[in-house]
Amino acid sequence: MVTAVLVGAIYFLTMVQAVEAVVADRAAVTAGGVPQPLFGLVPQLACIEPTGGTYSYVGRPVDPRSGPVVYFGRADGRLAVWSPESGGVLLDGQATALRFVQPGDTCS
């Protein structure tokens, strides 16, 4: 009985360590400054360019002049982006456009 409990605990701790390693690997930032791609999701650096006046967003506001954001893709007509200042944000895809940039570029 004790042996089975010890084997189960070792198995559980090994699985926890493996999951942590996979999550840490996926969260690592590439040399380009974006997270590593996942199946069907390739993050890119982009600058936000409003095409009209004000635009709606879900999350904290993003200042388009603050620098590039990480673009993850479209969701329900919105642009899914992330920046260190605002975190994850969904932008109105009809009132904003994205200009893709290289690492080190600035948005002006």
Descriptors:
24% helix, 108 residues, elongated, single chain, 6-stranded antiparallel sheet, alpha+beta
Give the amount of beta strand, in percent: 25-35%
| Element string (H = helix, E = strand) | HEEEEEE
pLDDT < 50 runs, ≥5 residues: none
Number of helices: 1
Radius of gyration: 19 Å
Tell the overall outline. elongated
- What distance separates the N and C termini? 67 Å
- Output the structural class: alpha+beta
Largest sheet: 6 strands, antiparallel
What is the overall pLDDT average?
Answer: 79
Number of strands: 6
Helix share bin? 10-25%
- Identify the strand order in the major beta sheet: 2-5-4-3-1-6
Describe the structure.
With 108 residues, the protein is an alpha+beta fold. The chain contains one helix and six strands; from the N terminus they run H-E-E-E-E-E-E. A six-stranded antiparallel beta sheet has the order 2-5-4-3-1-6, with no helix packed on it. The chain is elongated.
Question: How would you summarize what this structure contains?
Answer:
With 108 residues, this protein is α+β, with helices and mostly antiparallel strands. It has one helix and six strands. The longest helix is centred in the first third of the chain and has 26 residues, at 2-27.
Which SSEs are present, and which pair or pack?
Blueprint: H1 2-27, E1 44-50, E2 57-58, E3 69-75, E4 78-83, E5 87-92, E6 96-100
Antiparallel strand pairs: 1-3, 1-6, 2-5, 3-4, 4-5
